[in-house]
Specification:
This is Phosphoinositide-3-kinase regulatory subunit 6. One of its GO terms (molecular function) is 1-phosphatidylinositol-3-kinase regulator activity. With 756 residues, the chain is an alpha+beta fold. 41% of the residues lie in helices and 20% in strands. It contains 27 helices and 19 strands. A hairpin with an 8-residue loop joins strand 13 and strand 14. 36% of the residues are buried.
Length: 756
């Protein structure tokens, strides 16, 4: 195919992606997500098309910049970076043009400047040292041993068998196993060596001969070549001013040692163009482990096993008795102070053999008067106790050539591991994930063993029942996915369209032959999402305190993420167990409720409202229901600095209004809606309530007479509590207010966060 035909074909594919983002054409909705996948597959099958595609994407990005078509900038930029990571033969001039474009985007508001900064930092290294992005990605995702780049990543795919059919679970598991069965460590090392040499040497690399040599090499020889290439790339990338020419010289030496000086010389002088054309070097999919969600402690257990060395997998049945050897320091490292048991006077301390002082000496006299501090304080960073998120304090969440969340949270302890937790399901699954996330945070306030070493990234792919998804994509069980789709158009195109495809895969006959080469669309879409989805959207978790009609029972506490629904039971509680019904309250449908809440105002002032009304039910929702509400302050990206008073619930009350006329007494139904940060509701006429959390029938509370809802606070550690106890009453109150003002937010990663 001639170059003009190649560019025309690629241009048509790029235009199809743009039409998918810009238009609401019904003919394109059935193929959403496929255009991006087919575009990348064309490059995989013929790597020589990569420079042409980079030029086309750059041209479209510059056009979108000049026309201020911002809705296509982030999708095109993600597509371009994905091509640059996988491709070889990209010229320095194309790298510099892409870098210059990213620097121009830094003047735009978030999330454009955030993503552009991330891309610019990675491109600066890739321009000087070609192949760095590919090498680091493969080493981290495949857990290849490298002293110069010791980072590790893993994708944990969680599916709840109560919410997802067995056929879907089996289909996903077989697709993952079929693809990863071909990704041996030897194959991945060959890919790294081949990609690095082709990216650096370009047309001077005899790709066919190199591939034959690597396939014929033994495991020790292959490891030697692999470590030589990794050392050359990493050492050059870490220099203050990396030189492309110096990098080329180092890799030419490795290339000559592989093929011999004669073969290397033939490659530089030009050989058979059909044999020397660049070969496709696949980018292996990340290591994905498939897990059936059984209980809330499973997430913490899997993360601990990920951090532990493989030689220390001695797991106790009791999770509290987990052998955390290798994960120290535990609570002892995180404690802010150590209490001394001595008197604090040096002469009262026992002297060792080296500490004997001569009587009457000046040292002995000073020792009798000198006092040692009773508290030995350790100096830690101010936010060491429990960071606001697993990626550190709110700010620009970006990747700087390493897995996100790297760096030191504690002195001397690097966060070398990145756990990408991907859940499939509907809003009920997200509610269970929120409970597990809160339990994880509470456990960390006591043990503090995962946070310093692990960057936790959460991802979500909606998977609704077939009849539900066919009726409406924004169905009742897919509200959070619909919100993410409105906030991030690329998430809507790539992720929200996977549900029908997954169900089609489950209906196909199973093939147990994993030796055949597979080209899985679903696995590729998942891989693209977990690699490029680095911008989190934060969701407030709400706590509900539940009081039962049985006064002998203590109040129960639970949390919810998307919805709390209140229904009126037909039964009543005994008169002597609660206050008697108020005189003058007429019987009728529903129940008499007392509602007390703080009204959400634009001025952020506190205004308490108390009302008594008869209602047949209530619904408390945390998600905005329309595009006009989507830009509200309920959910925000890290750059928005979320505040507690910005968080609000949308409460819908189905009220019964009594009317009297000549025909007699009648009742009408009216739905009232208001916003609040917290609310208290109590039954007044002995009618019991039923609470349903996150639309999950397994999380139902019956025989409720009163409940309170408020934003769930960040778990408080023992260190914070000990600090509060050592302060005065006024200072204690100030510290408690600070702790209350920090809500617990759960981050769900998308491609761009919220696009305003």
């Amino acid at each position: 195919m001639e170059s003009s035909d190649v560019e025309l074909d690629l241009q048509r594919s790029v235009q199809a992606v743009l039409r998918e983002l810009s238009a609401q054409a019904p003919a394109l909705q059935s193929n959403q997500g496929m255009w991006r996948w087919s575009l990348h597959k064309k490059i995989e099958r013929d790597p020589g098309k990569s420079p042409a595609l980079v030029r086309i994407l750059l041209r479209e990005l510059e056009k979108a910049e000049s026309e201020d078509a911002r809705h296509v900038i982030i999708p095109l930029l993600h597509t371009l970076m994905y091509v640059l990571t996988k491709a070889t033969g990209i010229t320095e001039e194309l790298h510099r043009r892409t870098y210059a474009f990213c620097t121009r985007l830094l003047t735009l508001p978030a999330p454009y400047c955030t993503i552009a900064l991330d891309c610019a930092i990675r491109l600066k290294t890739e321009t000087a040292v070609p192949g760095t992005l590919y090498q680091r990605l493969v080493i981290a995702e495949q857990n290849l041993t490298s002293e110069l780049y010791p980072y590790r990543e893993r994708v944990f795919l969680f599916v709840d068998p109560e919410l997802v059919s067995p056929s879907v679970c089996s289909a996903l598991l077989l697709e993952i196993e079929a693809a990863q069965g071909q990704q041996t460590p030897e194959a991945c090392m060959r890919h790294v060596v081949s990609h690095a040499l082709q990216a650096a040497l370009g047309e001077a690399c005899h790709a066919g001969a190199l591939q034959k040599k690597l396939l014929a090499s033994s495991r020790p020889a292959l490891e030697r070549y692999f470590h030589a290439v990794v050392t050359a790339v990493e050492q050059m990338a870490r220099e203050p001013s990396p030189s492309r020419e110096g990098h080329l010289e180092r890799l030419e030496e490795i290339y000559c040692s592989l093929l011999g000086p004669a073969a290397a010389a033939r490659g530089r002088c030009g050989g058979d163009p059909l044999q020397d054309r660049p070969l496709s070097v696949p980018l292996p999919s990340p290591r994905i482990t498939f897990h059936l969600w059984t209980d809330e402690e499973q997430l913490w257990k899997e993360l601990v096993l990920f951090l532990r060395p493989q030689t220390q997998l001695r797991l106790s049945v009791d999770l509290e008795a987990l052998d955390l050897q290798g994960l120290l320091p535990d609570w002892e490292l995180a404690r802010a102070s150590m209490l001394s048991t001595d008197s604090g006077i040096e002469r009262d301390l026992p002297l060792g053999a080296d500490d004997l002082l001569e009587p009457g000496s000046p040292e002995a006299e000073r020792a009798g008067l000198q006092r040692k501090g009773g508290i030995k304080k350790r100096v830690w960073p101010a936010d060491i106790v429990m960071p606001g998120s697993w990626d550190g304090p709110p700010g620009l969440h970006r990747r700087t050539g390493r897995p996100s969340g790297d760096g030191e949270l504690l002195p001397g302890i690097s966060r070398l591991h990145t756990a990408r937790v991907l859940v499939l399901g509907d809003d009920r699954m997200l509610g269970r994930l929120a409970r597990a996330y809160r339990n994880l945070r509470k456990r960390e306030t006591q043990r503090f063993c995962l946070t310093p070493r692990l960057s936790l990234q959460l991802y979500y792919i909606p998977l609704l029942a077939p009849e539900t998804s066919a009726a409406s994509r924004r169905s009742e069980l897919g509200e959070l996915a619909a919100f993410l789709g409105r906030a991030d158009p690329w998430y809507e195109s790539i992720v929200n369209t996977l549900c029908p495809t997954i169900h089609k895969l489950a209906e196909m006959p199973l093939s147990l032959d994993t030796s055949q080469t597979v080209d899985p669309f679903i696995l590729d879409a998942i891989t693209y999402y977990v690699r490029m989805g680095t911008q989190p959207v934060y969701f407030q978790i709400y706590m509900v305190k539940i009081f039962s009609g049985d006064l002998s029972q203590d109040p129960a506490e639970d949390i919810f993420l998307t919805e709390l629904k209140v229904k009126i039971q037909d039964s009543k509680f005994p008169k002597d167990s609660f206050s008697a019904r108020r005189r003058g309250v007429a019987e009728g449908p529903g129940a008499e409720l007392s509602i007390c809440y703080q009204k959400a105002l634009l001025s952020h002032r506190t205004r308490e409202v108390t009302a008594s009304l008869r209602a047949t039910g209530l619904v408390l929702k945390t998600l905005p229901a329309s595009d006009s509400e989507a830009s509200g302050p309920t959910h925000c990206t890290p750059t928005a600095a979320p505040e507690t008073d910005h968080t609000c619930l949308k409460v819908s009350v189905t009220e019964i209004v009594k009317t009297s006329n000549l025909a007699g007494r009648s009742f009408s139904v009216v739905t009232n809606t208001f916003r609040t940060a917290n609310i208290q509701i109590q039954s007044q006429d002995r009618r019991l309530l039923t609470l349903l959390l996150d639309k999950d029938s397994c999380r139902t509370y019956r025989d409720v007479v009163r409940f309170e809802v408020a934003p769930c606070p960040e778990p408080c550690s023992r260190t914070q509590k000990s600090k509060v106890l050592g302060l005065g009453s006024h200072e204690q109150e100030m510290e408690r207010n600070k702790a209350k003002a920090k809500p617990l937010l759960i981050p769900i990663n998308t491609f761009s966060g919220i696009v305003q």
